[in-house]
């Protein structure tokens, strides 16, 4: 195999830059289980303010942040509604059921094209035999939905539905930074629509570790106990929080570069009939190989031989993800090589 030239498997593969490493090395630290780490305090306050919420809590991973938020919202045995391809049900190895006893019911996988009326029709009230719906979760941007951005108007309508039925509205906002850049919606506007959010620092922003749960002061006070129960209490983790602060202050606006590179890749591959460039809004490029000469594993293997790493999400589905560690040379190499594999 040729040495990899460019890695499109995920935006989690970025490595801390020299400047980020310097910030980590100089971070003030304390014991966060005792709530004494000043850099974690700074990170939590900054993220809470960005989203217009009262508080935030640093957690080791996006999965833990999501599960903490779900435990805040849904008592054991009660119901969560979400997209059938949501990270919460597709990529967290059944954590909501295994750890929290949550019954999950899904609407058809539609990515960012959420049908609010259909979601409303699924909400179940209290009843003698029915499992009551306690929360609705959406994903912004939508990973398995090709990085799609749910329109602000759709989220506003979902907020109205949640208020009408008294259910909790959660946002898996691992890549919400991309939606903010792509649509120009402020993080505070997004924050105002949700009871809780989870946001990730290591998908696209370049930090090595960490997500946060964002919500009210009472939610976050309860979340600290849930984090400890899940094994997420950390000690001198200000070193990690410093990386997150650097990422927030330096790497959000540049996400537009990743979006432009994703569109370039889509345009190069469009003649092969595997992607519609008009559908590429952020940094994820799904390749539908249903009518292609190669299936997903064969395409990925051929690309790897040419130094290009991709993710296979299904028999005929491959994903490319752009991120800050890729070079212009690497993108150009992919633009030149990948279409030839489908010729």
How would you briefly describe this protein structure?
It holds the Pfam family Beta_elim_lyase. The protein is α/β, with parallel strands linked by helices and 343 residues long. Helices cover 41% and strands 16% of the residues.
What does this structure look like?
The chain has 343 residues and is α/β, with parallel strands linked by helices. The protein contains 14 helices and 12 strands. The protein has helices at 18-25, 38-50, 62-73, 87-90, 95-100, 116-122, 152-165, 176-183, 187-191, 217-229, 238-250, 255-269, 296-305, 328-341, and strands spanning 6-7, 55-59, 79-83, 103-107, 133-139, 168-173, 196-200, 211-215, 284-288, 308-309, 311-314, 317-321. The strands form 3 sheets. It has a 7-stranded mixed beta sheet with strand order 2-8-7-6-5-3-4, sandwiched between helices. A 3-stranded antiparallel beta sheet has the order 9-12-11, with helices on one face. Strands 1-10 form a two-stranded parallel ribbon. The radius of gyration is 20 Å and the shape is globular.
